[in-house]
Write a structure and sequence with these properties.
Layout lengths: L22 E5 L3 H12 L3 E5 L3 H8 L10 H7 L4 E4 L11 E4 L14 H13 L5 E6 L7 H16 L4 E6 L9 H6 L3 E5 L3 H10 L1 H5 L18 E5 L1 H32 L3 H9 L20 H13 L6 H25 L6 E5 L14 H11 L3 E5 L4 H7 L5 E3 L3 H5 L4 E4 L4 H5 L2 H7 L4 E4 L6 H7 L2 E3 L4
Parallel strand pairs: 1-2, 1-4, 2-3, 4-5, 5-6, 7-8, 9-10, 9-12, 10-11, 12-13, 13-14
Helix pairs in contact: 1-3, 4-5, 9-11, 9-12
Bound molecules: nicotinamide-adenine-dinucleotide and uridine-5'-diphosphate-glucose.
Uridine-5'-diphosphate-glucose binds next to helix 9 and helix 11.
Length: 473
């Protein structure tokens, strides 16, 4: 890294180097790995995507997406010349310029990030590195602060144990894509963060992203062409800071949602309308419009585990993080809040039938990891209720998680609400906005809507004769 570069860490930089096509291996073909592989292939790199999950790879080889993500299959079809799939690392890594690690780092029981998948990948890669090889390992998985430095040392120790002399470098390159918009975010990131301690490795990663940083790629016709995104910012920094940027970003966004949910709770008490409060607040540029949508709270594979991991890291220093603690507490309280609302309306949940619309942790994805909706279904069942559930894409993923005689999986909204004592909107899928609520009302036992995502028009539904309860309105 150049002397003085740290000072301008957060300055937007534009690279003018000649773009060089690279041989890239992506390890882990999940939400992050697959989207990254597709985008890298689309912008011209030669990409090999590896996953130990043989079912995933079999689907991908047939051009089918193993996850629900808008534009994924079309993009997959569009870049097959540059993209191949396999279940194992090649015997030799000699031709590979960059290996991107994108395996999962889920929570352990104690809240730490579980590094077993990353650790295994490090061992696998190192065993394939050859004498005199140049290789850059790019860490996209979200890993605890200090991990990249530690792994860099570990790889070099393993190599010296094998008596291999090679030029292996690490670059921390956290990912910020959102599920449901993963392909779009991968093409148009707000920023690309690269953290490391080696100029030439950082330079190679900048080159890898050259077409994105300079928008020199051509977007396929079927993608929305009416985007107004500006060029992404490039943040060059050290390992620890890059790792912290990822955790801090997720913790901040989670806290912002919890903040608005706390205010929504008070709106409920005083009779103010959180929708207008959010608009009124968001119009202040310093606050910003995003992440002010009050509801059942945040879930998914990132906010819950990453806030937990950040707390775990802080505990190592006996350092308290009361804001993040509060954000998590408020998030759990949202589940209690909705159960109390249901109890308030139905009095007793035991023996009642509740329709739950939406199972994924947010619209646009089939991911049910840490989904608030799934947790609420489990709690209703524990309270003796029966639940009929519907989701446009996440039903299959939820079947195992919610297997119970008290849970009925329905293939349509109308099937789910048949004879229901109340309906809970748990994920704000557009389809729930478009359904004919008059028809729904005729089929329900009692016309009660708990709108856990503030999706529907309160006034219109009240006029139809529904008892409507939202979050903070
Ligand atoms: N999902 C997101 O929206 C998102 C966004 C930003 C960052 N992240 C981070 O990116 C990482 C990956 O997240 P994800 O949601 O894509 O995970 P995922 O669970 O969808 O995918 C991980 C994949 O890695 C594979 N895998 C595990 N061990 C392997 C090995 N040894 N070799 C090859 N493949 C292996 C698994 O089979 C799985 O398909 C996590 O650290 C996560 O925190 C996720
Ligand atoms: O105003 C809001 C915004 C979000 N949410 C909830 O917050 C959760 C997370 O939403 P979102 O951030 O859109 O989804 P993710 O795909 O989990 O993306 C987050 O987590 C990823 C994994 O680390 C990061 O890469 C992204 O930048 C970060 O936004 C979901 O349950 C949403 O329902 C709200 O309740 N209200």
């Amino acid at each position: 890294m150049m002397l003085g570069e740290k000072v301008e860490n957060f300055v937007v930089k534009r690279e003018d180097d000649q773009f060089k096509r690279l041989n890239v291996i992506v390890i882990g073909a999940g939400y992050v790995g697959l989207c990254t592989g597709i985008v890298m292939a689309h912008i011209g790199h030669s990409v090999l995507c590896i996953d130990i999950n043989t079912d995933k790879i079999a689907l991908l080889e047939q051009g089918m997406a193993p996850i629900y993500e808008i534009n994924l299959e079309a993009m997959l079809a569009g870049c097959r010349n540059n993209l191949s799939f396999t279940t194992e690392l090649p015997k030799r890594l000699g031709d590979t310029d960059i290996v991107i690690i994108a395996v999962g780092t889920p929570s352990k029981e104690n809240g730490d990030a579980d590094m077993q998948y990353v650790d295994q990948v490090i061992i696998d890669i190192t065993s394939k590195i050859e004498e005199a090889q140049d290789l850059i390992i790019v860490m996209k998985s979200t890993v605890p602060i200090g991990s990249n430095q530690e792994m860099f040392r570990r790889v070099n120790n393993l190599l010296s144990d094998r008596g291999v002399q090679a030029n292996v470098n690490f670059v921390s390159n956290p990912e910020f894509l959102r599920e449901g918009k993963a392909i779009y975010d991968s093409f148009y990131p707000d920023r690309i963060v690269v953290g490391g301690n080696n100029d030439s490795a950082i330079g190679a990663v900048k080159n890898m992203y050259y077409p994105l940083l300079n928008k020199t790629f051509i977007m396929p016709q079927y993608m929305d062409q009416n985007f107004e995104s500006s060029l992404p910012s490039l943040v060059v920094t050290d390992f620890l800071t890059a790792e912290m940027i990822k955790y801090a970003s997720n913790a901040f966004l989670a806290t912002k949602v919890s903040f608005i949910n706390e205010i929504a709770g008070l709106c409920d008490k005083v009779g103010a309308d959180i929708l207008d409060v959010s608009i009124g607040m968001g119009l202040d540029n310093r606050i910003g419009k995003g992440f002010l949508h009050a509801g059942l709270g945040w879930g998914g594979s990132c906010f819950p585990k990453d806030t937990l991991a950040l707390q775990s890291i802080a505990r190592e220093y006996d350092y308290e993080m009361p804001i993040i603690e509060a954000a998590r507490t408020i998030n759990t309280r949202q589940i209690i809040f909705v159960l109390r609302k249901i109890q308030g309306l139905l009095k007793v949940i035991r023996g009642k039938k509740i329709a739950v619309l939406g199972l994924s942790y947010k619209p646009g994805t089939d991911d049910i990891r840490d989904s608030v909706s799934v947790e609420i279904v489990k709690r209703i069942v524990r309270l003796g209720g029966s639940v009929s559930v519907y989701d446009p894409v996440a039903l299959d993923n939820a079947r195992k998680e919610l297997a119970s005689d008290s849970v009925n999986f329905c293939s349509s909204i109308i099937c789910a609400i048949e004879s229901a004592d109340a309906v809970l909107i748990a994920t704000e899928w557009q389809e729930f906005l478009e359904v004919d609520w008059r028809e729904v009302k005729l089929k329900m036992r009692s016309p009660i809507i708990i709108d856990g995502r503030n999706l529907l028009h309160k006034k219109i539904l009240s006029e139809m004769g529904f008892t409507y309860v939202g979050v903070g309105r």
